[in-house]
Amino acid sequence: MTEEKDYGFATRSVHAGADPDPATGARSLPIVQSTAFVFKDADHAAALFGLEDTGYIYSRLTNPTVSAFQARVASLEGGVGATCTASGHSAQLLALFALMESGDDFIASNKLYGGSITQFGHTFKKFGWNVIFVDPVDPENFKQAVTPNTKAIFTESLANPGGIVCDIERIAEIAHAAGVPLIVDNTLPSPALCRPIEYGADIVVHSTTKFISGHGNAMGGAVVDSGKFDWAQNDKFKSLTEPCGAYHGLNFYEKFGPMAYTLYGHAVGLRDLGPTMSAMNAYLSITGAETLPLRMRKHADNALEVATFLTQHSEVEWVSYAGLADNPFYALAQKYCPEGAGAVFTFGVKGGYDAGIKVVDKCQLLSHLANIGDTRSLIIHPASTTHRQLTDAQKVAAGAGPEVVRLSIGIEDAKDVMADLDQALRA
Fold this sequence. Notes:
Helix content: 25-40%
Order of helices and strands: HHHEHEHEHEHEHEEHHHHHEHEHEEHEH
Number of strands: 12
Number of domains: 2
Structural class: alpha/beta
Strand content: 5-15%
CATH class of the largest domain: Alpha Beta
Strand order of the largest sheet: 1-7-6-5-4-2-3
Shape: globular
CATH topology of the largest domain: Aspartate Aminotransferase, domain 2
Largest sheet: 7 strands, mixed
CATH superfamily of the largest domain: Type I PLP-dependent aspartate aminotransferase-like (Major domain)
C-alpha cells in the first residue's frame, strides 16, 4: 500500500507498508534474510552513506522486511516514521538517545513496568542521564519536577502493572510548556485501543513483543515519531539541530524536517548502538499486526468479564481494572481507550505475598511467565518476579505490592479463564 489514502485502522493493520513483492508478486511480506545489499555503482553507494538517497546498505541500519513493519507501526500510531528495535527496552534507549546528553534530566512516571524503573534509575545513570520519578496520578507533579536540564517527559498510557490511566493530554501540555517532548509507552493498549499522538504525545514507544506481535513468538520494539515537535524551538536538542560530525556537518532538522528524529534513530542510533530488529521478527510481528484490531477487541471484552468476576470472589481483596465503572481511572479510560481498557490488570489476593504465589502456582490453564500480550492468558506475581529488583516502597508505588497478581487476559473463552482462576483461588 504505497499510497496511504484515508484508509481505516483495520485496513491499515493489514496493508500499511507492505505492497506485493515487485520481483516475484508474492502477496505475503518476504523475509529478506540478508546482512547487506549490492550497490548499483560507486555514486549510489556514496549517496546512501551520505544520506543523500534512500535504500539499503546493511541490515543493522535498514532492511526491507523491517522497513515494512516500521511503516505499519507508524501508520497505526499516526506518526510520520518509526524505528524498530530488538526489544522494548532498546526502544526506550533509542527514544532518549537523540535527546539526552550527560548531565541531562528526564521526568518519568513512577508507575512503570519494573524493568523500566530499573533501566531508568540505574542503568541509564552510566550515560549520565538522570531520571526524576513522579506520581502520574496528578499531572501537576510533572510540572513541579521540570528543571533547566529536563529533556523529555516519559509515561505509560496504561501503567504496567498498576492499571493507572495517565492523562496524556494534560501531561503533553506540561511537556510542551517546558519545551520538551512527551514520550508515551503505548504497549498495553496498543494503537487499536489508544493513540497517544492524537492527544499531544510527540513520541510513542512499544514493546512490539506484546500485543502488536501478539503471539509470544517475536521480540521487538518500536519508536514512533509524530513529526509534530519543533526541535529547533530552543537549544536543547543539539543532536538534531546542530551539525553532525559523523555525517560531515549534516544538520538533521534542516535536512529532513519532520523526519529528523526518525532518521537520526536509523542513521546514528541503529548504526552506533546496534539494537536492530531481525527480519524474521519483523515478519512475525507484521503478521501479528494484521489481526490486532480483532484480537484487542476480544482481549478487552474478556478482561472486563474476568475482572467483573474477580470483584465478586470471596478470596479477592480488590481488582484494579480501568474498565470497571467504579475504578478511579474509569473516566480517563473512557476518554483515551473508549473501545476497551486493555487486557492487563491486577488484583489483590487475601493472604498477601504467600497467597499470591500460591494462586499462580495452582493455575492450570493460565501460563505462569514474564510476558503480556499473548493470545494465551498469562499470570504472574510481580513482587517475586518482574518487580523483584525494586525496594518494597517502589513495589507498592508501582502497583506491585505483596498481594498483587497480574493477569494478561488472552482470547480464549472467558468462562474457562474464570474457572481456572476460581479453582486456584479456592485451592
